[in-house]
Amino acid sequence: MILALDAMGGDHAPTEICLGAISACSKYPDLEVVLVGDGSQIERVIKDAEPFVSKRIHVVHTDEYIAMDESPTVAFRKKKRASIRLAMEMVKAGDAQGCISAGNTGAIVAGGVLILGRIPGIDRPGLGVPIPLPNKITLLIDVGATIRCKPINLYQFAIMGEIYMRNTLGVKSPTVALLSNGEEEIKGDEVVCEARNMLAKANVEFIGYVEGKDIPLGVADVVVCDGFTGNVLLKFVEGVGEALYRLLREEMDQRILPKVGFLFLIPMLKELWNRFDYEKYGGTPLLGVEGVVIKAHGRSKARAIDSALKVARDFVMNRGVELIRNGLDRGGM
Amino acid sequence: MILALDAMGGDHAPTEICLGAISACSKYPDLEVVLVGDGSQIERVIKDAEPFVSKRIHVVHTDEYIAMDESPTVAFRKKKRASIRLAMEMVKAGDAQGCISAGNTGAIVAGGVLILGRIPGIDRPGLGVPIPLPNKITLLIDVGATIRCKPINLYQFAIMGEIYMRNTLGVKSPTVALLSNGEEEIKGDEVVCEARNMLAKANVEFIGYVEGKDIPLGVADVVVCDGFTGNVLLKFVEGVGEALYRLLREEMDQRILPKVGFLFLIPMLKELWNRFDYEKYGGTPLLGVEGVVIKAHGRSKARAIDSALKVARDFVMNRGVELIRNGLDRGGM
């Protein structure tokens, strides 16, 4: 299997991206990775890899890439040889079975639609991020591909998310819920309300509305919302983690006694951290486009890129795109 | 000062509501509270209060109240003697300077608009909840009064929230931010984008867009969003707290060593808890209506009701409604 990896996307590109490719290729002997980006920078990292790994890592050189703060659609049109664009064109041409980038989210979404195109029947794609909870994973979809949605978009996110959870993440009969401002049927605006009516008739385990508090409590396997709400929530979680970390450090600096306690607590905190570690699940699929496109977190280091490559590999092996295409036929999206 | 308190609203009504009234009246000798609800139930609780307190607690009896799961607008029209309605009518008639309820949020918002009316020029009211952060309080507005917003709504929430933070919570030159799906100007949908343009010209310390992660990090004093997003976020925070608590208990049950650490950690956790304790700030003002209306959390016990009465008292003393009315004139809302 060949996967195209945007070597220039993300805060730690290209070094950590290349190291992630080496790590994944060491694990999966069937995997070949094409690193797209600055050839000399890439070569400097991959030259030290074991031969049985390095023979499966290829390089496509380009000088262009799309920065995190560039306007995605403008940059995508202007930069014909941007690394993310070339990676997607490889998928389009059949030279790679999937592509991965830790770069500009807007560019990944725009590129997915412009280069690969939407699956026939799909109105808008959705980014579904797996959120690790204490005893399960919940897929939150959408987290930023489609900022404001029509009912059909929420409906299709639900169907695609359900297929992804069932087939790629291996959850049997995943439950699907719509995020709203209350559990009662009278809640929600017209868009959410209409999506609810559509989902009530769909061929999925639809459990109705859930509230914000139900997400961390793991009430549903797939939680559907528009990209604005999902993006705000996802980033809020990051902020809470950072704020708690700062607070713990501050407390540690101020007190003597709890420092001792902190030592005892380390195994517990490590365990907690492991449970919530996004790097383990470091890949967010762009669902609804004609090809495997995985977004990795902008702050991804080698381990997260390794996970994102695994997610792409699983998605390809489980024929995820084909399943969504068939799911549309079956569910009548 | 006379405040009308809905004795029948909330999960712990009427006992904890009545105890909250006793607690507040013990602290503030200038305060009189009218408890509106089932007279015999109320009397049973307040009969044990000290005479110098009980003489300042009055009862207005009614058999009707609006349940948490009732449709707010229907219930408000049908139940002419619902406790929350009578409390608001007292404010309207000038028999009380403000009212407080821990009941059905929708009914409080609908009642505020129907009974008290909007301040002239205000399109929709907003619920602004003070979120305690490590070193400050951030006001998140709206958290559920106006589910989907026009640009003018977000703009007016910002102006009203700024006035509230400055005058009632005593923050000098509060910074105001709009919640969006990214910090860059290209982010946001048309509504958020237009509100940004309006706020850039307003007479407040507007710092532009913030992302979800900036809320827990305390980047702004006032964070503005539509009621759908604010409600989802607020409830998400509750869920995170509950999930962490469950997880800690589970971990405690499974390990021996960290239990020792946990003992050492107790003072630290207590300190953390104190910092984030919503009961200390237990009152959410409904801004934009012609009167002081404070929503207390549905799970409020006596201490949170006591805080909500304090919030109402401060709001009355600081002439909050008048300031918003004047702020409109000044800012040209």
UniProtKB/TrEMBL annotation, chains A, B:
Catalytic activity field: a fatty acyl-[ACP] + phosphate = an acyl phosphate + holo-[ACP]
Subcellular location: Cytoplasm
GO molecular function terms attached to this record: phosphate:acyl-[acyl carrier protein] acyltransferase activity
Keyword rRNA processing: no
GO BP term, pick one: phospholipid biosynthetic process
Gene3D superfamilies for this protein: Isopropylmalate Dehydrogenase (3.40.718.10)
Pathway assignment: Lipid metabolism; phospholipid metabolism
A Pfam family reported for this protein in Swiss-Prot or TrEMBL: FA_synthesis
Record keywords, A-Z: Acyltransferase, Cytoplasm, Lipid biosynthesis, Lipid metabolism, Phospholipid biosynthesis, Phospholipid metabolism, Transferase
One annotated Gene Ontology cellular component of this protein: cytoplasm
EC numbers, comma separated: 2.3.1.274
Enzyme class label: transferase
Family: Belongs to the PlsX family.
Function: Catalyzes the reversible formation of acyl-phosphate (acyl-PO(4)) from acyl-[acyl-carrier-protein] (acyl-ACP). This enzyme utilizes acyl-ACP as fatty acyl donor, but not acyl-CoA.
Quaternary organization: Homodimer. Probably interacts with PlsY.
Descriptive protein name: Phosphate acyltransferase
Source organism phylogeny: Bacteria, Thermotogati, Synergistota, Synergistia, Synergistales
